[in-house]
Amino acid sequence: MRPSLLDPLFAPVTTLSGVGPKTAKALDKLLGDETRGARVIDLLFHLPTGAIDRRPSASIADAPIGDVATFSARVSEHRPAPATKAKAPYRIVVEDETGDVTLVFFHADVRHLLQTMPVGAYRIISGKLELWDGMRQMVHPDRILDPKLAATMPAIEPVYGLTEGVGPRVMTRIAAAAAERCPDLAEWQDPGFLAKSDFPSFSTAMQALHHPPDLKAVEGDTIVRRRVAYDELLASQIALALVRRQQKKIAGRATAGDGALRRRIEAALPFTLTDGQRQALSDIHDDMEKPERMLRLLQGDVGSGKTVVALLAMAAAAEAGRQSVLMAPTEILARQHAERLAPLAEAAGLKLALLTGREKGPGRARVLEGLANGEIAIAVGTHALFQEGVAFQDLALAIVDEQHRFGVHQRLLLGSKGEAVDILVMTATPIPRTLSLTWFGDMDISVLAEKPAGRKPIATKALSLDRYDEVVGGIDRAIETGAQVYWVCPLVQESDTLDVAAAQERAEALRDLFGDRVGLLHGQMPGRDKDAAMAAFVAGQTRILVSTTVIEVGVDVPNASVMVIEHAERFGLAQLHQLRGRIGRGSAASTCLLLYKGPLGPVAEARLTIMRETEDGFRIAEEDLRLRGEGEVLGTKQSGSPDWRLARPETDGDLLAAARDDARLLIERDPQLESPRGEAVRALLYLFERDVAIRLLRAG
Known about the structure:
Blueprint: H1 21-31, H2 40-44, E1 50-53, E2 68-79, E3 90-96, E4 99-105, H3 110-116, E5 122-128, E6 130-132, E7 135-139, E8 143-145, E9 156-159, H4 168-180, H5 191-197, H6 202-210, H7 215-219, H8 223-249, H9 260-268, H10 275-288, E10 295-300, H11 306-319, E11 323-327, H12 331-347, E12 352-355, H13 361-373, E13 378-381, E14 395-400, H14 408-413, E15 422-427, H15 433-439, E16 444-448, E17 458-464, H16 468-480, E18 484-488, H17 503-514, E19 518-521, H18 527-538, E20 544-547, E21 560-566, H19 573-580, E22 590-596, H20 602-613, H21 617-628, H22 653-669, H23 676-687, H24 691-699
Parallel strand pairs: 4-7, 10-15, 10-16, 11-13, 11-14, 12-13, 14-15, 17-22, 18-20, 18-21, 19-20, 21-22
Antiparallel strand pairs: 1-9, 2-3, 2-5, 3-4, 5-8, 6-7
Helix pairs in contact: 4-6, 6-8, 8-22, 8-24, 9-11, 10-11, 20-21
Organism: Bosea lathyri
Pfam family, one: Helicase_C
Domain Helicase ATP-binding: 287-448
């Protein structure tokens, strides 16, 4: 049960003063999730991304040009816009003994300006100071204050991630209110480590993060940042330690085959296994033959051949007379796996069946019967495989494709359909070594670092959307030579708020040029329509497939050799790498075009640069980690962001090592965390929402 001391942090944001329904709705979108609205704790962990120095300059002459400046000045003149120029700005001149500044206001509320800035009044003014025609000016100052209210403006103002409907001042005020809700908590850190590190208390650290005394407090490697980073790592390492302990409690079953079915499948393959695939299979078979349960992560770059490894592992289970399942995150990918694997399984005499939420009636009944009586050796499907009513005669192996879509919660539930089920999870999103050590400490890891022979490099280019007509011309030439093209858009339908391409509108525009050779695929289409669109593209009936990111994982059309990603600046690195991986699977040279709308921000520019420089998924993953943050595998967040994730495994190696050692020793000495320190650690787990650990502790 959550400690009552934490209840104020888990209350809705509407319990904070000044947060009404409208603001709460905007915060729900920014900080909440699909099942609940934003809470006070979400604001507490919504940490500043930077800070603005609003410390006042001694005079206007001393105020920095080209940066945020704060100074005291007297209002000397109002200059209304000429009556003949309706769109001209309203100007106010302020001055001190060293010079003057022109304040510029577009679409001004003149009455308000006359009231708040009467001629002769002194005001404190803060905003970006620039030169225009050799004169100092400030367009729409951030702050205009009566000197009596000077104390209300922080010298160092934190900058937060925002959303429509929540401006910077509102966010600063409510984040500070959330920080004030943080109670004084019993200490969960090891006393010796705490003293050695000179860490403040958790509540003191959170207050300091939301009220930075200087710019370094936000941007630098400070004591308070390291304090909370360690807490975050400790919570995760304790959760992983509990998961490891739980796995050890459950006895496994040895699954050993004679290799006959595996040899038949390998003989039917149109290629030779790579050394990496053979090593991964050796690791998996060694695990399956042991009496302990297997929990292994198979990670490999796009196109490295993970699915074949999965099939051969399932064949090993079949050799022992047991069953396997392969679960994919999307129906499209599940159906493609079934279509590709069925001929190979048939060559070995194995029956393979597909089960998704769409299978109904007699067909579904036959599959369920075959799983229950053992006739079906391999089941491929979606989450439907683990619903009630699906029973296996003897399930030995559960394989999850695209591990990045699932967390520890799902891994712990996978064994519920059989006795001592071995688990293999796969990801085509390479994981940096530092992240593997941090978040996958409960798993053994195999890596496929090489691609099958014959794969050609993909030429990747970044082009401005201003060159759209050139791109369309190139597409025309490509399809005339027999090539097929993916054209990926970030939205399904046109948006009133986002100026980005929508798949439906783009498909219509391309059909005006290419007619019926253009297909459309997106996640909101009925299942059968999606199947038909994909089948037409696979068969070559359509030459251009306009799609959303529903094709991001697994889709394999060897003849597709051109990928156009529209508004590439809006996609993350992992997504861009996955999308690019849909081409380059055949014998033809392939090209990926990243269409962007400028001007690019520094992060977007860095993403496109690394995509042009390399196809190495592991290097891309390291860059993604640096730019985006780590994500949350023990919780629900699938991506990190610098505005609340403090732990940085790539630079906080010493903190990570200390947290791992501390977690291990703590669990060994206090298995159920019932000591005084253990009770404090329970509060830590609730605070960082390590639900897996909490459930395991409740279960005893």
